[in-house]
Amino acid sequence: MSDKNVMVVEDNEKNRKLMRVILKAKGYNVIEATTGEEALSILKNQKPDIILMDIQLPGIDGITLVKQIKADITTKDIPIVAVTAYAMKGDEKKILSCGCDAYISKPINTQELPLTVEKYIKKS
């Protein structure tokens, strides 16, 4: 089993389950959060190797959460990949400019997801 931890911040159970199944099949440990607040609470005690972040979250939205994570000295170096339904022209640039390292649009490409995770875990 891998010693790499992937945090999935996603409020949609079907998307969370899909990512969990794909990532566990590749040997990753999966840490799940359904809200930005829950993610921040988990990050106080655990430091994942990468975070997969939904942008449309209840409460703290994904962009605000990314900015908070990147502003914290203990979590600023964790790669964050936005996984979002925002796919309009300009959305990717906006999302990357807020601090995300990469962008994956929904619906989730089951082959692209693990390749992106592997790429950014190797960089960290």
Taking the sheet with the most strands, its summary is: 5 strands, parallel
Unreliable residue stretches: none
- What order do the SSEs take from the amino end to the carboxyl end, as H and E? EHEHEHEHEH
Strand content: 15-25%
- Rounded to the nearest angstrom, the distance between the terminal CA atoms is 19 Å
Structure overview:
- The structure is a single chain.
- This protein is an alpha/beta fold and 124 residues long.
- The protein has a single domain (5-116), classed as 3-Layer(aba) Sandwich (Rossmann fold).
- The protein contains five helices and five strands, in the order E-H-E-H-E-H-E-H-E-H.
- The chain has helices spanning 13-25, 36-43, 62-71, 91-97, 112-123, and strands spanning 5-9, 29-33, 50-53, 80-84, 102-105.
- The chain has a five-stranded parallel β-sheet with strand order 2-1-3-4-5, with helices on both faces.
- Strand 4, helix 4 and strand 5 (102-105) form a beta-alpha-beta unit.
- It is globular and about 30 Å long.
- The two termini are 19 Å apart.
- The mean pLDDT is 93.
Output the keywords:
124 residues, alpha/beta, Rossmann fold, 5-stranded parallel β-sheet, globular
Furnish the topology, listing elements before pairings.
Layout: E1 5-9, H1 13-25, E2 29-33, H2 36-43, E3 50-53, H3 62-71, E4 80-84, H4 91-97, E5 102-105, H5 112-123
Parallel strand pairs: 1-2, 1-3, 3-4, 4-5
